[in-house]
């Protein structure tokens, strides 16, 4: 702690006659105490915070209070398994090949306060680059979060939108790297292309770590509120050995389930074959347009008659749905937890006339979005049928999907996507 | 010289600083001390080297035969009225003739008969062991379960299936739907667009730890719940409030769980007139081979408020 100012104050005071100091000593004491308080107040060690929203949600669902003992048990288990923001830990989970997804050295470099060692190697990368938006805990509620639209991602649900794996699958290493390198167009998420590769790797590991940690916490809250009896402990360090080992193995089982999905993701990317490069583009776009407005792909229902993203504006994403935004009474309770609960906003389908696509603008990026849908959002995946399916089979072939991609990519260049031309007579002349 | 005025000003300034310094409400955190971390970590990792990912399932004695568990669910008192849904899309199909559409969360029949109560065996059942799965279930093991939607309403407000089965998500409407099976754990989640008058298969790949919500994002008022059980021993009450689970393993004590979308796990009930407290909706029964046990369960309407 920097205690400079109070010392200076005392030195300066020594110049005044002692009588005066005594006369006003109560004032000075108060000033000193307050100054010290002001300085100490903001220098506490970084701590992971509890998922208060999910705990309240489970309390409401199970009609039972999450007792003080539960809070303590949960904090013990989480710290035991995952460590602290300054000293993260890679949990040992038996069969799960966790070293494939979490690297202790990476975690060390990404965690802790922003600093560097004597050789200039950075530490505290997450807090330097990410925490102000995504929060120390990865809850998407850092100090700047409330000012952003869309809000930063809360990793703890374990759901990621822009990835190559099917619904429910975790993002691959490559997916996370793409996001870090390219940023997310149309949002506050910038590109971190300038960071050296090892620092990007460290951040990828750390995001996985925070996500796994957050999802395990949710699982354990679920276990405590839905499975355990009111007087059963989540984890009791002073319990007899066999009780303790049973508790530990149940906890590991829940944690392993989460971590395993990250290991599996690496081999789950949807395989994509390139479209025919010599296809008739005009015909493909025309076919894509028919599909867009047709009853099979049904894009028009949400993206709207003019593809402005105005067909369905009253839905929410999964993170917001957790707050039950349509139930005013319950929403009030969630918002009452504190300012880290951000006011709900509707999720809007993408305005396809702007040419800004959050998950990337390459054809393959758009293909993935239509093929798999977007996790955590209302955007569904397509019903895929084989290319040789008998005529009349309901669904979309892969080549149909490429036509949709071609059509969507053509939308920003249609004349109605451009700003209206203003007649010269009405134009303001430049001075 | 430090005048009273200056002192007061500094005082106020200091107070302001100390008050404003950290105004953001942070989510609660329970501090853990460092020595505790090592102790807990040691205990959590004890005996874990490799090959021990999860707990070992308790070995149960094999059942001695088969029994039937059936019964009725009734509500005592007035159930909360169902809400009118805001149908503002595809109205010709979804609300033909401007008819009112209700959410139908609590469906009560004559005599208080409560529909859509889920009863399932929550004990772990070795589902590949013929001593545990009656042969009558073999024909449905890999079967199809239909989950239909018509006039923009899920025809079953509560669906239930065995994790080995395939759910045929039907769309009997002339408009497209998308069915968002929002399972976050166990069973895989799916959000698939279901073209008009067609169907999409959903293979859960595993059991869900609890019922999960089903919705349609094109028509946001459409809501239902789905449970994927890891055994065939489950039932949903019908319009008469009755359910029946045939050929349940007998001679072993099984844990059952009872759930309703509005009330959650049913906890305070009377069974055949006697009060029972089902903690988190759980109750245990051991049925003798050949038994046909009937449970007449009454739940107070207050559970549905």
Give a brief outline of the structure.
The complex is a heterodimer of chains A (431) and B (305). Chain A is mainly α.
Strand order across the largest sheet of chain A? 1-2
Task: Write down the Rg of chain B.
Answer: 26 Å
Low-confidence stretches of chain B: 50-56
The first-to-last residue Cα distance of chain A is: 57 Å
Structural class of chain B: mainly beta
Derived structural class of chain A: mainly alpha
| Secondary structure: number of strands of chain B | 20
Task: Report the major sheet of chain B.
Answer: 5 strands, mixed
Please name the defining characteristics of this protein:
heterodimer, A: about 425 residues, mainly alpha, Cytochrome Bc1 Complex, Chain D, domain 2, 3 domains, two-stranded antiparallel ribbon, 17 helices, 2 strands, about 45% helix, about 0% strand, globular, B: about 300 residues, mainly beta, Immunoglobulin-like, five-stranded mixed beta sheet, five-stranded antiparallel beta sheet, 4 helices, about 35% strand
What does this structure look like?
- The complex is a heterodimer of chains A (431) and B (305).
- Chain A is built from 17 helices and 2 strands.
- Chain A has 431 residues and is mostly helical.
- Chain A folds into 3 domains: 4-41; 52-265, no CATH class; 281-313 and 348-417, Cytochrome c-like domain (Cytochrome Bc1 Complex, Chain D, domain 2), CATH 1.10.760.10.
- Chain A has helices at residues 4-13, 18-23, 25-41, 52-62, 68-82, 104-110, 125-129, 131-134, 173-182, 197-227, 241-265, 281-293, 300-303, 318-321, 328-335, 363-372, 398-410; strands at 115-116, 122-123.
- In chain A, strands 1-2 form a two-stranded antiparallel sheet.
- Chain A is 45% helix and 1% strand.
- The relative contact order of chain A is 0.11.
- In chain A, a hairpin with a 5-residue loop joins strand 1 (115-116) and strand 2 (122-123).
- With 305 residues, chain B is mainly beta.
- Chain B has one domain (67-304): Cupredoxins -  blue copper proteins (Immunoglobulin-like), CATH 2.60.40.420.
- Chain B has 4 helices and 20 strands.
- Chain B has helices at residues 4-20, 34-45, 91-94, 138-141; strands at residues 65-76, 117-121, 144-147, 149-150, 153-154, 158-162, 166-171, 177-181, 190-194, 198-202, 212-215, 223-229, 234-236, 242-250, 253-260, 264-265, 268-271, 274-277, 282-286, 292-300.
- A 5-stranded mixed β-sheet of chain B has the order 14-1-20-17-18, with no helix packed on it.
- The longest helix of chain B is centred in the first third of the chain and has 17 residues, at 4-20.
- The N and C termini of chain B lie far apart (68 Å).
- Residues 50-56 of chain B have low confidence and may be disordered.
- Classes of the chains: A mainly alpha (431), B mainly beta (305).
- Chains A and B meet through helix 3, helix 4, helix 5, helix 10 and helix 11 of A and helix 1, helix 2, strand 8, strand 9 and strand 16 of B.
